[in-house]
Amino acid sequence: MKKIIFSFVTVLFSLLSYAQIEGRWKTIDDETGKPKSIVEIFKKPDGKYYGKVVQLLIKPENANCVECKDDRKNKPILGMEVIRGLSKEGDEFTKGNITDPKNGKTYKCTITKDGEDKLKVRGYVGFSMLGRTQTWYKAH
């Protein structure tokens, strides 16, 4: 009986952890294909998910977000919250937004796991079909 309960608990935890996006993720530059930064995704007490830049792998043209329009304007990119307010809905994290510090634009955001070591991060305006998807990789 103990083996059955242990097996059930193990399977349950592996299923629950599969859909989690918390941790450090390597972003890739769309133009060069090279690793750009490390973003740490975490859950706040409000139950929503956020992500901040914890390491820059490519030196940006400007160290501050000069194009940002909100409270991030002229703030350093390193340490900046670029993902805000994602809610978990099934296997998807959605209803939040993502900001591109390079151009200061903020987009609606949806994130889904693609296996254990990849995230599909979709930023879009209006409808999800009007956007682009990046693959982020687990940072080790």
Automatic annotation (TrEMBL):
InterPro entries: DUF2147
Residues annotated as domain DUF2147: 23-137
Alphabetically ordered keywords of this record: Signal
Transmembrane segments: none
Keyword field contains Ribonucleoprotein: no
Pfam families: DUF2147 (PF09917)
Statement: the UniProt record of this protein carries the keyword Signal: yes
Signal sequence interval, chain numbering: 1-19
Record-given protein name: DUF2147 domain-containing protein
